[in-house]
Amino acid sequence: MSTEGVQAAVKHLSRVSYNVNDEHLLSEMDVFLQCRNNYIVRYISCALQPTYLAIIMEYAPGGSLHAVMERYPSLDIKTIRCFMHNIISGLFFLHEKNVVHCDIKPHNMLLGVEGVCKLSDFGSCLNVDRVVQDNDQFDVRGTAVYMAPEVAKGETCTAASDIFSLGVSLLELVTGRLPWVWTKNAPEDRDVTDMSALYRNSVRFIQYLCKDYVAVEIPDDMHASAAALARSCCEMDPCSAPGEPAALQPLPDQLSTYKQQRESQSVFIAASFAHRWPSLYTTIIVFPFFSS
Length: 292
What we know:
alpha+beta; Phosphorylase Kinase, domain 1; Transferase(Phosphotransferase), domain 1; three-stranded antiparallel sheet; two-stranded antiparallel sheet; 9 strands; 12% strand; globular; disordered C terminus; nucleotide-binding; Ser/Thr_kinase_AS
């Protein structure tokens, strides 16, 4: 708490985990400090210490959606709709800034005042402009059970991989459990046969994801529009670009304008979304599941 009585949170990040020098680290933090949006936890300042980076940020009194799920396993679909609308708005803002979150999951979705849900924890974020300029090699980033297949295989995180993680998070919020199941490619004599045990073994999970032993399953009885959104987000092959779902309706004038603005964004934005789903954000807006 500051001398003025304003509450803030402080997060410590080990400098050892960053394969970048001090100048680059502070440069990335400068990018995050400029990411001001109602649906992103506000970063106030930072301090570089010998062994860690201290990040001072907005305090979110409601905790994470992961903690909320533990207290209330069956969230109301309207509540989930509101939360996801907030998170999608924040994520789109980051992607417009050429920032990839790299660790989208309910743990990093925090509830602020008045129940507004905000994206947090930028410890794994990538500034795409710097990646392109420096041609850096990064370690695998993110959390295994929310990870896109291409990231598990060692590819750099993109907006498309954020979208995959968003789909996994949506499924977990709606069903109360992670959505992974064994595929027909999984051998019977595999080292781990229990899915719950696999979730606790990040290294093994990543190996199995790379080998196509596991895949996302969408329940048959799930809310139709939410299921359609999750299915498109969780396309296992990022190079596959399925057509727009039948749930799409003609866009009102204001949404058509929004779509044109989005399509005029940088090559990075257009290329990343085309990999997994070219009309993700437009479709989210017109889905009945996310309409007001």
